[in-house]
Amino acid sequence: RKEVEQDPGPFNVPEGATVAFNCTYSNSASQSFFWYRQDCRKEPKLLMSVYSSGNEDGRFTAQLNRASQYISLLIRDSKLSDSATYLCVVNQGGTSYGKLTFGQGTILTVHP
Amino acid sequence: GAGVSQTPSNKVTEKGKYVELRCDPISGHTALYWYRQSLGQGPEFLIYFQGTGAADDSGLPNDRFFAVRPEGSVSTLKIQRTERGDSAVYLCASSLTLESSGRNEQFFGPGTRLTVL
């Protein structure tokens, strides 16, 4: 089983749609969780950190369920500029606290 | 301010050759990380440094891979006897600090695209 697994995608949605991405992680001791965004042939950039109470930043909402080892990202009112690959990222902390473990990414395409 | 920079942006080499990839972290960042990313996959951890020392090199695939950070700033990833399977984008990241909680944002450079023929 992969350490971080994401919806395979790709997602193709019209502008204005709401889209949700899911992610599961295997290590129950994982401490920190993130969503990164990666544009084509560019580097990953932090979109949001995910806190245990859930957090919202404008059109983006992230949720964490530690009991189910599940992370989600919700994008409301999708824009063309949201088209990118979304990477679910986990930091296991402990002795590995410098290491980020990435999911394979989910491709989102928002069309007019 | 300036972000993480990596050189070269592209490197094409022949099987069996030696390559060096360079990373300049954001000024003042104490932690530096190397990842590699194959097509269609997320980045995969290789090694990270806190200051000059390699704190965790568990992701290096074998002893052909080696990385240094002699003065606690610039880092070089070195690959000996390159193989076709080493072809990937090699990403460097840095963070201001390295917290045991893992809640430290890593800023990525644009990567070096390595192609081994």
What are the defining features of this structure?
heterodimer; A: 112 residues; mainly beta; 6-stranded mixed sheet; 5-stranded antiparallel sheet; 11 strands; globular; B: 117 residues; 4-stranded antiparallel sheet
What is this entry, summarized?
The complex is a heterodimer of chains A (112) and B (117). Chain A contains no helices and 11 strands.
Question: What this model shows, in words?
Answer:
The complex is a heterodimer of chains A (112) and B (117). Chain A is mainly β and 112 residues long. Chain A is built from no helices and 11 strands. In chain A, a hairpin with a 5-residue loop joins β4 and β5. The radius of gyration of chain A is 14 Å and the shape is globular. The mean pLDDT of chain A is 92. By secondary structure, chain B is an all-beta fold. In chain B, 0% of the residues lie in helices and 47% in strands. Chain B is built from no helices and 11 strands. At the A-B interface, β5, β9 and β10 of A face β4, β5 and β10 of B.
Q: Tell the overall outline of chain A.
A: globular
The termini of chain B sit apart by 37 Å
Rounded mean pLDDT of chain B is: 93
The most extensive interface, with participating residues per chain, is: A-B, 25 and 29 residues
Helix share, percent of chain B:
under 10%
User: What characterizes the major β-sheet of chain A?
Assistant: 6 strands, mixed
Q: How many helices of chain A does DSSP assign?
A: 0
Strand content of chain B: over 45%
The topology string of helices and strands of chain A comes to: EEEEEEEEEEE
Radius of gyration of chain A: 14 Å
Number of strands of chain A: 11
- Radius of gyration of chain B, CA atoms, in whole angstroms: 13 Å
Low-confidence stretches of chain B: none
Instruction: Report the sheet-strand fraction of chain A.
Output: over 45%
Which regions of chain A have little confidence, pLDDT < 50, spanning 5+ residues? Answer: none
Could you state the order of secondary-structure elements of chain B as H and E?
EEEEEEEEEEE
Mind describing the biggest β-sheet of chain B? 7 strands, mixed
User: Quaternary state, please?
Assistant: heterodimer
Mean pLDDT of chain A: 92
What is the overall number of helices of chain B?
A: 0
Q: Helix coverage percent of residues of chain A?
A: under 10%
